């Protein structure tokens, strides 16, 4: 299916790159019809983005069903004010047609209202009747308690989105002001989840290379940093569990590291720490409640200790600033705290659909060959952009050809899983992010357009790639603070200590 062209020529996202010197990367956008055969690229050009083809890509669904989704009162991520609900059915549209959750009743035994916690309905609801569960009070209380050390971590996607609330043009990177704002409302330390994204890559890329070399390992490995995707798989495709990377998400790794490594280095009693994650995501509120994410408790033998205590969305964080009358635009930039504050460009691109896999193959290439990745791997163009399913083929010396794929929106994840079950999937590594665009358009981001639009997504995506390109260090394995944690605390990727603190398991 690949068309071969000369080294260095980029045609388009649907074009292919072919290199004579041992490395080739090919990329295609696939149009997939259910679990059937891939369509040709020409047919895919007719449109198979994150939406089903019968809808256009601007986000204006023809509403087919009036009514509303059910929300469990115990849902840790979303809630609804029924007084505001106008029964327009937009939440059903996004849940059913983009995420293929509502109305997909092939369920195992769990007796629950089905929700994968992605929070996309909070973006589609025209009256903001559906919102995230408000956890701001927990954070105010921690900040007011003199016995607590309150530590924030900030996800990759927030810094290119929160500026929307303060008059910055869409896609402005306000990282320094975001850190300053957290200090202004009283956080004692500010860590960067991007640092933990580099740590995730060290573990995940090591795991991937290990599996590539092991003929008994599952053929495909899935990335697992999106908790909505993890929950979706546990509900609908539990047979995929062996294919899952066991590496925790960056949020979860950071949580474990703050109460162990960081606490030890800074001489802080871990039981005094309140660990707050600021995320673009409603599902991260759910992730932090997962029982198995209690590595610090195991490490310190302190049952009940949680790796992450509270997750705030970008919107909640912004609300807190407004309550304190803090204008983000007027703050002087501040830096993250050291030890857990430096990130490579690879850590930054996690925010975009395709970013996790691109970061992973940069380091996997190095781990497999001992050589730094060439430019075509460093900028893996075929996995950029808003197409629902993207594909690339790498030629890694010593390993051979490796096909990879990226899905955004759970409707597209479903197609990938159905293809795997039908024996039609050639991919060794697959990234899935539940939200179209990835976390830059997560369920906790500012409602800068309702429903969310691709023009907003594109600006944020562009901003993230621009940061990556501007970084001196763009590879996770070259991050000096990541090298330091392995030298001084973890040993090496997949070590016993790393397995205890940085890896997890899944529950069908
Ligand atoms: Fe994401 Fe993440 S990239 S899921 O969207 O992997 O929420 O921004 O923080 O954990 O890093 C969200 C964003 C993260 C995590 C990272 C991953
Ligand atoms: Fe959360 Fe990102 Fe997954 Fe959306 S894609 S549910 S924001 S982790």
TrEMBL record:
List the PANTHER family: NITRATE, FORMATE, IRON DEHYDROGENASE
Enzyme category, top tier? oxidoreductase
Alphabetized, the UniProt keywords read: Iron, Iron-sulfur, Metal-binding, Oxidoreductase
Q: Which GO terms describe its molecular function?
A: ferredoxin hydrogenase activity; iron ion binding; iron-sulfur cluster binding
Organism whose genome encodes this protein:
Syntrophobotulus glycolicus (strain DSM 8271 / FlGlyR)
For this protein, the record's SMART domains field holds:
Fe_hyd_SSU (SM00902)
Could you tell me which residue ranges the 4Fe-4S ferredoxin-type domain spans?
Answer: 76-104, 106-135
- PROSITE patterns given in the database record: 4FE4S_FER_1, 4FE4S_FER_2, PROKAR_LIPOPROTEIN, TAT
Recite the lineage of the species.
Bacteria, Bacillati, Bacillota, Clostridia, Eubacteriales
Q: Which Pfam families match?
A: Fe_hyd_lg_C, Fe_hyd_SSU
Q: What is its EC number?
A: 1.12.7.2
Protein name, per record: Hydrogenase, Fe-only
